[in-house]
Each structure stands twice: as structure tokens, then as C-alpha cells.
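S.,

Sequence below, as promised.
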Amino acid sequence: MIRPLPFALRFLEVVALFAFLLFPFAFPAAQSATAALSGGVTDQNGAVVTGANVTITNTATGLERQATTSDNGSFSFSLLPPAKYVVAAQHEGFAPVRIEDVVLNIGDQKSLQIQLRAGQVSETVQVSSEPSLINESPAVSTVVNRQFVENLPLNGRSFNALIALTPGVVATPSSFSEKGQFSVNGQRPDANYFTVDGVSANAAASNGNGLGQSGAGAVPATSALGGTNNLVSVDALQEFRILTSTYAPEFGRQPGAQVQIVTRSGTNDFHGNVFEYFRNDV
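The prediction came back faster than expected:
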């Protein structure tokens, strides 16, 4: 016998369904703040090399990951922190290959082809030139790395001005109903989605009675002056990527921009910095 649900339980189900329909972007899938590298290993004649040992090492932290090529000579590394890496490949009967300066940014999906040459194991073929990485992601995006953050002047030590470096971004004015963000490719300014290290950084709080942009979680958790200092300071910022179109369906708040921010991690070397404001009439 099927008993009817209690009124309170049915009421909660109706409220949950209403909230899902009203705010469909409040429940996005998990997003990663990492990168991925895949590729293949071949010999001088273009034949695939199976069972080759491929190692990727983070030059800043010493993090090392290993993989073995499959039957079709392919390998894959996922969930890699954005950094500069060294990729090495070796197999019996071939000289080991070492590829330096493999840079992976946040959200990268890159492919690398490695060629082994016949030789002794004691010999090492070192590739010093910039490696030829193939971008396998269909997304249209722009990366603002640490070099831009350190060298470009930032008003109030906030990186929100660097968002305008992305093609298609237009700043929008602020008003009572519009909190003032930016529009990407003509989309609404409240359709942008911010994440810090893969965690949502959009606010869902309002100081008024209506469910505007703040109440719907449609604005980033910026400071009272509209700066991004509340999200991450410029000293702790490693880089960020802005995806403007054709990105994966795992991202929420489509069809606006996806701003992926990643913070700096520790390294094996000690680092520090000092800053000072100095302004005069000269």
C-alpha cells in the first residue's frame, strides 16, 4: 500500500523544485583548477613505442608523476597543478629524451608528441627549444599569467582591470539593480562565473528585499569598492583564465564568461616580496 507523503515533506519538495527552476545555475558541476597533458611516443620511423616510461616533473616543487605508454603508444597526465614541467621518456634500446620548459596553465588540455631515437641508455637527448604543444581544448580563452600581474600597473592592487585584456570584454556601468561587472560577447553582465582554485567565488547575499544579482549569486564576492582583493590578493595570485565561448558543459552560469583563478603554491625555494606606494606631483 502506497501512503501519501506528509504535507511538510511535500512542501519541502515543492520548494526545492522551485529553487532549482528559479536558480538553475546555483548547482554547477565541480570544476578543476588544474591542467592535463597527453600525447604519444614514437620512434624515428613514426612507429608507436609501447611500454615506454614517461615522467613529468614540476621544476618548482619536485612533484613527479609517471606513466607507461599503452598499446597505441599514448600516455596521459591529469590533475596537474599549473606550473613549468620537465617531461622525460625512456625505453630499452632508445636514448632517453628530456624535454624542458613545458608550461601548463590553468585549464590547459595540451598534447605532446615525443620521438625516441635508437641509442644507448647512457645517452640523453635533451630538447632545449620550446616544445610544440597542441591545444586540444575547443574553448576560446585568454590566460593572464604571473608575468602580466607583476609588470602591469594595477589600481588599488586589484587584478579586475586585467580582465579587460580579453577580446570581447566590455565594462558595464554600476546601478542599483546592476552591480557593475563586464559583458562578454554581448551577454548579460550577471552571467559571469568566478572560481578560485576550483571553488565558486560568486556571492549569494543581498542587502535588499529583492532577489537581484546578489540574491541570485550572480556577482563575484568583490570588495566594497568593486575590487577583486576579496577573491585573492595580487601577491597570492598565480594566474587566471577567462573562457568566453565553446567551453565544456561542466561550467555553470552559461553563457557568460568563466573566470578561473588559481593561487600560488609553495615551492622548494624561499620567496618573499615587499611593496610600497609612492606618489607625488612630479
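The first helix runs from residue 7 to 22.

Coffee later?
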